[in-house]
C-alpha cells in the first residue's frame, strides 16, 4: 500500500516515455514543486465491477454493476433462497456493494433485477433513487436509503417507469413541492419522464431532439446524454454534438446552442464527458458554464468492430450557456481521450481521469488506456490550463468510475470490457482493484494552512433553509487573523451518481461568508449564507469544504431543505 510518487521525477519519466511513443502526449506544463499526487491501492477486490458508484452522506459508496454478467468476484454462499438476479450456475453472487470509506470495508447488497447501464439521482433525504437497467430490470425503480448500521439494502418499487431505460440520464429537479427526478433517453427511446409522475395517467413525453441526434449505424452516439440544471431552472441537454436548453415545466426547447466543433461525437458509445463549472454567490449564482471533453472520431464504432481503433478526440469545448451569444471556446487536452471521468475538486479545478486514447465505448472496443489523469485549471491562461499528473498502473477502460470522497481523495474502481467477468481477458481483464488518488493539497505537509475540524452548527432542525445564514466552525494551526489574509472560500458540492464517464447532477457552489471571528483556541466562527433556492442547489446533502489559501479542508456534510 501507499505507493508514493514524486510528481516531478515520475512526470519526467512519463514525458520521456510518451515522447518516444506518442509525441502528441507531451505535457503542456510541469507540476509545481512540492505538489505530490499519491496513488494508493485500497484493496485487491471490490468484489464486483464498479460500473456505477455514488457517495452517500454517511460516507459509504454504493457500487453496483449488472446482474446479467453472471458470477462476480464475490460469492454469497449463505444467501438462501438465491434471488434470480444473483444466481449464476450453481452459485449465488453479489452485484452490488456498500463500501465504507472510514473502515475501507465492503458489504454485499442484494438486487432483485438487472441494473446494467442504468441511472440514478439522490433525493432530498439522501436516498439514492435508481431507475432502469436491462431485461426485466429496464423499467424498474429502486431505492437505497443509506444507513450507518450497515443493515440497509435495496428495495424495488412496484411502480414501473413508463418506458424502458437502458443508458438514460437522471437529474434531480428543483421542485419545491416534493422530490421529482427527470429521466431522459435510453437505447431507442426518444422520450423523457418524471419519477414520480405529476398525475396518475402521466406517461413519457416525446423529445424529438433525441431522435435528431441519434446515429443508428453508430449505436446511438447520443446515449447517456449530458444534463446540467442551469441557473434559470431549465435543463441543458447535450447529445452527440448538439445541445438545447429545455423547459421541463412546459416541455419546450427554448434555446438551441451551436454545434460543438471538433467532429466526431461526445456521447455513448463515443463517450466523452462533461462538467458544469462552479456557481458563485458573487454573481448571484447566475453564470452557468459547461465543458465537454473528449469523445470518439466519426465512424469509431464500426471501425472498432473490425478491430480498427481510431484516435479519440482530444478537444474540449467550453460554453457559457447563460450568455446572450453563447459560443464554444475550444482547447486541446494533452492527448486524445475518451471514457474519462470529469471531477470537480474543491479548489475549483477539474480532474480528468480514467479512459483510453483509441476506439470507443463498449465491449473490447477501445485500446491504449490513458493512465495519467489531467488537471484542468479553468482560470489559467488558455494553453496553460492542463497539467499531466503521475500515472496509475491500472487500466480503467469501459465500465470504470471515479468520484470525490469527503476526505478529499478520489476513489477509482472498475473496468470490464467483457460481457462476463473475465480475469484472463487480454489485454484489459476485468478489474476489481480499488484505488485512491490523493491530491497534493490533501497531503499533511499543507496542514498548517488547512482548515481543520470543520463542523456546522445545527440547532433543532436537521437542515439549513434556503437563503438562511448558518455557522461553520473550524480550526487553524497558526493563530488565524482572518481579516488580514485572503478570505477563505466556502464551497458546497452535490455528490454525483457516476457511471459511463457521466457524473449525473454533479454541482458545486461558492457560498457567501458575511462575517468571521476568532472565538479563542484558534477556532474560527464563520457565518455563511445557504444558496438562495433549489434552482441554485436542489434540496439534499452537500459536502461543505473550507478552502484557505488554496488548501481545502476535509468536507463536512450539510443538508439544504425547503
Ligand atoms: C494485493 O495483492 C498483492 C499481491 O498479491 C499484495 O502484495 C498486496 O498486499 C495486496 N494489497 C491489498 C491492499 O490487499
Ligand atoms: C423503498 O424505499 C423508499 C425510500 O426510502 C421508500 O419511500 C419506499 O416506501 C420503500 N419501498 C418499499 C417497497 O419498501
Ligand atoms: C476472456 O478473455 C480471453 C482472452 O482475451 C478470451 O479468449 C475469452 O473468450 C474471454 N472469455 C469471455 C467469456 O469473454
Ligand atoms: C480537532 O478535534 C479533536 C477532537 O475532536 C481534537 O483532538 C483536535 O486537537 C482538534 N484539532 C485541532 C487542530 O484543534
UniProtKB/TrEMBL annotation:
Q: Pfam families of this UniProt entry?
A: Glyoxal_oxid_N (PF07250), GO-like_E_set (PF09118)
Keywords from UniProt, A to Z, are: Signal
List the InterPro entries: Gal_Oxase/kelch_b-propeller, Gal_Oxidase_central_sf, Glyoxal_oxidase_N, GO-like_E_set, Ig-like_fold, Ig_E-set
Q: Which residues form the Glyoxal oxidase N-terminal domain?
A: 51-440
Domain Galactose oxidase-like Early set per the UniProt entry, residue ranges: 461-559
Query: What SUPFAM superfamilies does its record include?
Result: E set domains, Galactose oxidase, central domain
Q: Which residues form the signal peptide?
A: none
Please tell me whether the keyword Signal is annotated for this protein.
Answer: yes
Protein name per UniProt: Galactose oxidase
Q: What is the lineage of its organism?
A: Eukaryota, Viridiplantae, Streptophyta, Embryophyta, Tracheophyta
